[in-house]
């Protein structure tokens, strides 16, 4: 009986065992999830993220008169500055996490593990992605909240909206890269200070129209509070900048992997592609035709009729830049309300309401619009809602009473026309006394003062203010009937405030009519 010896050429393999590369990928993702959770245990990350979310919520619930009419090409840029402190906190905390093993003296123990050092670096890089995604979610909620308002104006830019999450991603990647290049806890703080100075200089250069300013991943957006302009006049290469920052994040991440020994074919290919994309982004940001942009701004400022569309409502024309076409019905409502209180030919006058901006120099700055000398033309700006509504009504009433906006530059302070104008503005207002106070620069209904308008304001003497207050205390129907019955006298330069008070059935003002208008 002979014995038979069996030889096994290959070791036994469990059929359910995944391939080696899949196991490594799963291990990296598992470590990335662990590191992402560990970041939450570092107080600056949750604290500054909560502050960021709180700032956004506070901004959304804080309401003013123009809240219902947000201009979306300003809303998208407003989202960029809020997460900067959160990004700094993430940079520092990710750097600390990447240096944890060095701090605790466990670097040598990693040598017995199957996972290569560069894969651990990749896990740290991936741990930042959830926080960038959370930032993107906050930005989407903020923008969606504003965009879904019925009065939202214009449209946003995906390139602008991408800046906030890309800023957070960039900060996290830099934190990991610094841990590989300069493993010291003081380096991130020094980097933040230096980068802040660079970003400020870049933002100033970008505001001056210099393309070099866009080489900074972060370009601070100043809250100027100035009048918005059409999106195509901003001159911001938002799409190219988003590509540039995205590629820069990938390039820096690849640099960290290469420094850690990850010289694989995939990492080298990603590095080459990212470098090409960075160059493309730089070229795209620098290739804008500044002469054409300046020409477009001049055309929109000096000859807006060339780039506007018009619609006719009840005999009046309303002309606006394309992004503001939805607000024309609101203008028409104000015109009809004011015109319904007028008498004579003004009750059926055909007006032209035209939107104006001043973008010949810097854009989005507070600028006084030049009054139109064209009879029957009313100027309106790019902000709407709140106090802009009665200010626009003042412009409409001025044209109905005086014939043209430029009449506000003439001597109107000793006759009855300002009284008539203010009645047209306030006669159908649900809260006339409050509106009268808000529309005056002095925030008072007494004494002399300047009434705000889209162009030059309307100066009123104390005597005229007194007559207007008396009118608001009388029954509206009675005053309206008297205004229409004595329209010719009330719009005449020869009628004094005292004579107007007598025509309208109220007490004559005690103030002297020789009082000069407020400068």
Q: How would you describe this structure to a colleague?
A:
The chain is mainly alpha-helical. It contains 21 helices and six strands. The relative contact order is 0.08.
What labels would you give this structure?
519 residues, mainly alpha, 4-stranded mixed β-sheet, two-stranded antiparallel ribbon, 5% strand, disordered N terminus
Alpha-beta content class: mainly alpha
What's the alpha carbon Rg, rounded to whole Å?
33 Å
Count of helical regions:
21
Main pleated sheet: 4 strands, mixed
Q: Roughly what is the average pLDDT, rounded to an integer? A: 87
Total count of strands: 6
The strands making up the biggest β-sheet line up spatially as: 1-2-3-4
| Helix fraction bin | 40-55%
Spans of at least 5 consecutive residues with low confidence: 1-8
Order of helices and strands: HHHHHHHHHHHHHEEHEEHHHEEHHHH
The proportion of strand residues reads under 5%
End-to-end separation in angstroms reads: 127 Å
| Shape call | elongated
What topology does this entry show?
Layout: H1 20-40, H2 44-61, H3 72-78, H4 84-98, H5 100-103, H6 117-126, H7 129-147, H8 158-161, H9 163-181, H10 187-207, H11 238-259, H12 265-286, H13 290-302, E1 309-313, E2 316-320, H14 328-339, E3 352-355, E4 377-380, H15 388-402, H16 417-426, H17 432-438, E5 449-451, E6 458-460, H18 462-472, H19 476-485, H20 487-490, H21 497-504
Parallel strand pairs: 2-3, 3-4
Antiparallel strand pairs: 1-2, 5-6
Helix pairs in contact: 1-6, 2-4, 2-7, 4-9, 6-11, 7-9, 9-11, 11-12, 14-15, 15-16, 16-18, 18-21
